[in-house]
Amino acid sequence: MSRETLESHFKSEDLNKVCRAMVACAYYENDWKWAQEKFLTFLQNNDTTISGLAATCLGHIARIHHKIDKDKVLPALQNYIHKKEISGPVQDALDDIEIFVK
Questions:
Q1: At residue 1, does pLDDT exceed 90?
Q2: Residues 6+ apart with CB under 8 A from 9
Q3: Contact present, 49 and 83 (Cβ < 8 Å)
Q4: Percent of the chain scored above 90 by pLDDT?
Q5: How many alpha carbons fall within 13 Å on the CB side of residue 15?
Q6: How far is CA 6 from CA 21, 24, 30, in A?
Q7: Three-class SS string for 28-91?
Q8: Residue 44 CB: number of other CB atoms within 10 A?
Q9: Which end of the chain, N or C, is less surrounded by CB atoms within 10 Å?
Q10: Any idea what DSSP says for residue 102?
Q11: For the segment 26-35, what is each residue's pLDDT rounded down to a tens digit?
Q12: What confidence tens digit (pLDDT) does each residue in 5-14 have?
């Protein structure tokens, strides 16, 4: 997906469209910093489907690119580790960062 398409889907009212765009962005966007910023914003979303997927996508960036801005991402994830609805994906993302980002 192009950035324009991603941005359009991110703004959609269709949850499935938003989630598909998020996963596509995590897997195929070459600019991991741009994607990281999008997922940090989505992490704050009140919909736990979106915020949980944002955590998962941050883990995907770490696993795929072996890079992430730890100074931004680790504290952001730690803010949500005790939110029971998304604590699993948050912990998985923290584990991926620990394993794949040196």
A1: no
A2: 1, 17, 18, 20, 21
A3: no
A4: 97
A5: 9
A6: 6, 8, 13
A7: HCCCHHHHHHHHHHHHCCCCHHHHHHHHHHHHHHHHHHCCCCHHHHHHHHHCCCCCCCCHHHHH
A8: 12
A9: C
A10: -
A11: 999 999 999 9
A12: 999 999 999 9
